[in-house]
């Protein structure tokens, strides 16, 4: 499986280094329709109804797919022998780092080269802005965090590397100086979100973030953990007005009117590891003669990784500064957010630069992944809610969140925002005030991870809602139904959801399910040995970031074969199959080749961008968008929930254009229909079935015959597209077929017949307004979960015996993937609720001693393997776009389990995970 196909397209980065990226491709060993085309196996399906997993064959047959699979001998044109790198990290962040002591390494385990912070300074490398902080801790300073790298050890032989790895684990080589205590660093973010609804449902808000903008005092002051308080109202500039409304809301809650139920609760969630199958790994070679750095990586954000590498080396000394960086992107054995903007590629590149001429591999084992990999944020939350006792309507809500961001900022500010703006979940509450602060600590860096802050806040919210129902003597589902945010209602930030709202149907499904209807009888099954309980929870999870970009390219050959390129990454999300199925709806058959992570395949578009898409003003956007090649962002990281919605969108729009201006004119010619015939305009009435194009009253046309005719006519046979979404897709018009053709795109290139791609200038462009950056979320999908648990009285062990999850995700592109994500999300929810935890500091993963002997994830024995029912609601309309769903399926599992434990024991747990010892103490 040697990569033999490299379709490089290049551009010059701001650093002046020529960047190129490619998708690793294996050599084809047989006829095209019998070979794996990485990631998709050539599809033998003749219609979109036969939806197999085109991304699964190589995995099932053991092909080399992941970055960790490859060695130098696998790479065409590379030297055959692989060297190895070892990243040394400190397990102390309270003393001066005084240097390395490698005396434990004998001659057989000595590194060829030791790279320190002094070496990085000597050659002039730079940490990219996102990774601000010392890449290697300098001697004489206190490390920023536990697990901070202090040195790179480079070995020319595997045996020396392997022996050193073992010895240094037994005897850490870190020398310590004077005790300083942990470093104090500023907060990563501090924000306040306040909304006061108008006096009636249709009246405008009195105050909201959408109206006034997001506000921040700049920092919060400590008031004793776990909750921090904002600055006085007179400080903080624009902060003052929102804070006045916020304090009024809190004062009203504290007043405790007799007709109002007020609950004030604290909740704590833990740090956990993403625990993806494949620890981070990669391969690099710096060809100093050709001044080219080549890398093999598995990341969720290919464009960001490439640009970060260029920044790292863009001002380095001439001897180590490459003129070209070629990056090959492989599959990932899991991502879950932990490989979104990971610093791993920076260390791999440094290893290659300091051992020029030798391919070198950096690959974490599980100890190293625990010590250095990105973690989930631990949260401490205080939540207050005021509820009308007569109606059960929640009318005021306040919350304070503190997130432990660990040693580097990473995505802490973003997670703080998402968790805060999602704090009221699926509910319509007219007065809301939420503060959030993300703090620096000496813990391992926290960042993006599946659930992205909503997992934590939903656990606190949905257990609180259950307690409200119990306090009012009301059915838990009835209470939720009375408080639902309905279509057209406004979220915490003051904007509506702009997609279908399916929570009423989800509640109906939950209420009618046997697990809920029979919960009282089930509780009566309690015995001397076992307690039984049932719990429910519902949530919504945003998908999209408010600045999402997608690239898609679709080509049809004269035999009707379809080839797709997209920039989304395969990380267990089935993106190859999803994009193939979405394109098949327009072009009549499954793709014969799908190639993902291909940011190199769109050079003809000539895209340029500038600045931060989240910070751009309307005036700036209006000015730069006059350039027909300008887009707000070129390519986005792939995340757990945007694959189907974002990752397939550009390819779907490209396929629609190929159909309309290529396949449809060819079909009209085959049918003999002229321009004056009314049927000329019925392209949206036609449909594909079993590889045939069908229009009522006309003979079906074989897809390959239509494609052949398109080539013979010189009709459009390929389209290359870019799309951008800021809670709505940008829309542009392009000159096609004598029309100004409007599409949910902002850049387009097309080809006719066998010709090259030609970019089309847009004749009109409408980017979503810059003010949409104030929206907290607009795209959302929903899920509800019921669980039944059994608790062993003697051991305190909680076991989920039965479960039901119902979700909605718009158009389902690949049912098997949706089911798999729901099952995997359920397992992760069980682990988070009952099993997984990482201590934050010296006893936690930063000490380098954690592995799966100590960290327990959910296993088959912890799951209802044969009693987990997953139901997916059909789309509200056949043409409803796909929604992101891979995060939402995990989130309600956690509070449902907590609510079931309360149902069984009468005790409410306010911290995760709930361990057998916790349960025994409660009993």
From TrEMBL:
Residues 250-484 form the Aldehyde oxidase/xanthine dehydrogenase first molybdopterin binding domain. Keywords: Signal. Residues 1-29 form the signal peptide. Pfam families: MoCoBD_1, MoCoBD_2. It comes from the Bacteria. GO terms for molecular function: iron ion binding; oxidoreductase activity. PROSITE patterns: TAT (PS51318). The keyword Signal applies. Residues 513-598, 631-844 form the Aldehyde oxidase/xanthine dehydrogenase second molybdopterin binding domain. The keyword Signal applies. InterPro entries: Ald_Oxase/Xan_DH_a/b_sf (IPR036856), Ald_Oxase/xanthine_DH-like (IPR016208), AldOxase/xan_DH_MoCoBD1 (IPR008274), AldOxase/xan_DH_MoCoBD2 (IPR046867), AldOxase/xan_DH_Mopterin-bd_sf (IPR037165), TAT_signal (IPR006311). This is Oxidoreductase. It comes from Ancylobacter dichloromethanicus.
């Amino acid at each position: 499986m040697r990569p033999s196909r490299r379709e490089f397209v290049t551009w010059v980065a701001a650093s002046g280094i020529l960047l190129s990226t490619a998708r690793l491709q294996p050599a084809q060993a047989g006829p095209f329709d019998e070979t794996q085309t990485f990631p998709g196996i050539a599809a033998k399906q003749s219609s979109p109804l036969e939806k197999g997993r085109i991304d699964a064959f190589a995995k099932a047959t053991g092909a080399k797919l992941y970055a960790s699979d490859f060695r130098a001998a696998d790479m065409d044109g590379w030297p055959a022998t692989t060297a190895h790198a070892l990243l040394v990290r400190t397990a102390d962040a309270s003393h001066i780092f005084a240097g390395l002591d490698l005396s434990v390494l004998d001659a057989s385990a000595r590194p060829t080269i030791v790279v320190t912070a002094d070496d990085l300074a000597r050659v002039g490398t730079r940490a990219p802005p996102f990774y601000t902080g010392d890449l290697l801790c300098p001697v004489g300073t206190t490390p920023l965090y536990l697990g901070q790298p202090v040195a790179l050890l480079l070995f020319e032989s595997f045996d020396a590397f392997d022996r050193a790895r073992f010895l240094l684990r037994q005897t850490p080589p870190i020398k310590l100086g004077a005790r300083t205590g942990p470093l104090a660093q500023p907060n990563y973010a501090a924000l306040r979100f306040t909304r006061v609804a108008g006096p009636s449902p249709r009246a405008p808000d009195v105050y909201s973030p959408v109206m006034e903008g997001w506000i921040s005092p700049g920092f919060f002051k400590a008031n004793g953990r776990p909750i921090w308080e904002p600055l006085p109202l007179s400080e903080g500039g624009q902060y003052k007005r929102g804070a006045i409304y916020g304090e009024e809301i809190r004062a009203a809650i504290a007043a405790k009117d007799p007709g109002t139920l007020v609950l004030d609760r604290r909740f704590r969630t833990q740090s956990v590891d993403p625990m993806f199958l494949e620890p981070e790994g990669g391969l690099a070679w710096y060809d100093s003669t050709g001044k080219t750095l080549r890398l093999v990586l598995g990341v969720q954000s290919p464009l960001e990784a490439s640009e970060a590498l260029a920044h790292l080396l863009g001002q380095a000394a001439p001897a180590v500064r490459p003129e070209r960086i070629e990056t090959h992107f492989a599959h990932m054995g899991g991502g879950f957010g932990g490989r979104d903007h990971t610093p791993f590629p920076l260390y791999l590149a440094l290893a290659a630069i300091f051992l020029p001429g030798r391919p070198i591999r950096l690959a974490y084992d599980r100890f190293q992944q625990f010590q250095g990999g990105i973690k989930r944020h631990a949260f401490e939350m205080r939540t207050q809610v005021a509820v009308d006792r007569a109606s059960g309507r929640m009318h005021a809500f306040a919350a304070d969140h503190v997130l432990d961001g660990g040693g580097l900022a990473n995505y802490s500010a973003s997670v703080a925002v998402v968790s805060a703006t999602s704090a009221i979940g699926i509910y319509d509450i007219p007065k809301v005030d939420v503060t959030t602060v993300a703090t620096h600590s000496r813990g391992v860096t926290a960042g993006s991870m599946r659930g992205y802050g909503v997992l934590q806040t939903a656990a606190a919210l949905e257990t609180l809602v259950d307690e409200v129902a119990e306090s009012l003597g009301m059915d838990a589902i009835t209470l939720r139904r009375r408080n639902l945010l309905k279509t057209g209602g406004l979220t915490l930030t003051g904007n509506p959801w702009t997609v279908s709202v399916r929570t009423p149907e989800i509640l109906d499904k939950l209420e009618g399910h046997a697990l809920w209807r029979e919960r009282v009888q089930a509780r009566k099954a309690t015995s001397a040995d076992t307690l039984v309980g049932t719990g429910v929870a519902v949530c919504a999870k945003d998908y999209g970031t408010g600045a999402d970009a997608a690239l898609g390219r679709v080509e049809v050959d004269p035999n009707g074969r379809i080839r797709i390129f997209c920039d989304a990454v395969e990380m267990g999300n089935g993106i190859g199959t999803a994009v193939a199925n979405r394109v098949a709806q327009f072009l009549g058959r499954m793709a014969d080749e799908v190639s993902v992570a291909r940011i190199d395949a769109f050079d003809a578009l000539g895209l340029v961008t500038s600045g931060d898409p989240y910070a751009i003003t309307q005036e700036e956007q209006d000015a730069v968008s006059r350039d027909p090649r300008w887009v707000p962002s070129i390519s986005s990281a792939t995340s757990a929930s945007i694959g189907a919605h974002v990752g397939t969108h550009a390819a779907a729009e490209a396929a629609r254009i190929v159909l309309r201006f290529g396949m449809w004119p060819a079909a009209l010619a085959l049918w003999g229909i002229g321009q004056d015939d009314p049927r000329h305009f019925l392209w949206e009435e036609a449909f594909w079935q079993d590889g045939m194009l069908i229009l009522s009253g006309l003979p079906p046309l074989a897809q390959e015959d239509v494609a052949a005719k398109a080539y013979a006519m010189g009709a459009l046979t390929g389209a290359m597209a870019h799309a951008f979404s800021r809670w709505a897709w940008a829309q542009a018009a392009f000159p096609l077929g004598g029309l100004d053709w409007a599409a949910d795109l902002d850049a387009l290139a097309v080809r006719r017949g066998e010709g090259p791609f030609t970019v089309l200038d847009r004749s009109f462009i409408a980017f979503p307004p810059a003010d949409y950056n104030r929206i907290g979320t607009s795209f959302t999908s929903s899920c509800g979960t019921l669980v039944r648990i059994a608790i062993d009285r003697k051991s305190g062990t909680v076991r989920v015996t039965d479960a039901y999850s119902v979700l909605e995700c718009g158009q389902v592109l690949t049912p098997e993937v949706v089911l798999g994500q729901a099952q995997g999300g359920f397992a992760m929810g069980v682990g988070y609720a009952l099993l997984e935890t990482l201590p934050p500091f010296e006893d936690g993963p930063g000490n380098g001693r954690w592995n799966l002997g100590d960290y327990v994830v959910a296993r088959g024995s912890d799951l209802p393997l044969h009693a987990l029912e997953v139901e997916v609601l059909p789309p509200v309309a056949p043409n409803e776009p796909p929604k992101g769903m891979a995060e939402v399926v995990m989130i309600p599992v956690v509070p449902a389990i907590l609510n079931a434990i309360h149902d069984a024991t009468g005790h409410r747990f306010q911290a995760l995970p709930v361990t057998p010892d916790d349960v025994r103490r409660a009993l």
